[in-house]
Amino acid sequence: MRRTSTETKAVILAAARERFAADGYERATIRAIAADARIDPSMVMRYFGNKEQLFADAAEFDLELPDLSRVPRDELGSTIAAHFLDRWERDEALVILLRVGVTNAAVAERMRVIFAAQLGPVVAATAEHPGDVPIRAGLVASQVLGMALCRYVLAFPPLVQMERQAVIDHIGPTLQRYLTG
Fold this sequence. Notes:
Elements: H1 5-27, H2 30-37, H3 41-48, H4 51-58, H5 76-90, H6 92-101, H7 105-126, H8 133-153, H9 157-161, H10 164-180
């Protein structure tokens, strides 16, 4: 049975998601993904160009941002800080996405879209001035992505060694200012 190009792309993406989840970005190969999808590796290259683009297209993740409507206004920053620490520490895909996004334009664009689409509405729910939302969301993203880059990708020893609560205590007030200041 022949597949349409749309069906073939969907099969490749499904196989890629499973392979990246199982093996991580570094160990996953185009050949393994193609074998999982039961197609020739050249088809993966035809549709996606390279491993980085395939990962960017396969990277669908939910930041699982909390509903801040029930959080006391003065605890928004620490709540977001704690949430992102939890999220980064339990999902290697986010760390991989960040690592690859630093050097790959397609993955960086995917991250921008994800953060704008998911973080923007959460920030909007806390903003007193709707015109500030894109800037505030960008600043929140800069803080959490910067911490993630330094703690989980570059592994700066002082940040890696910090206790979870110490990280929250340090970046929470900055996030609070970005959200409500």
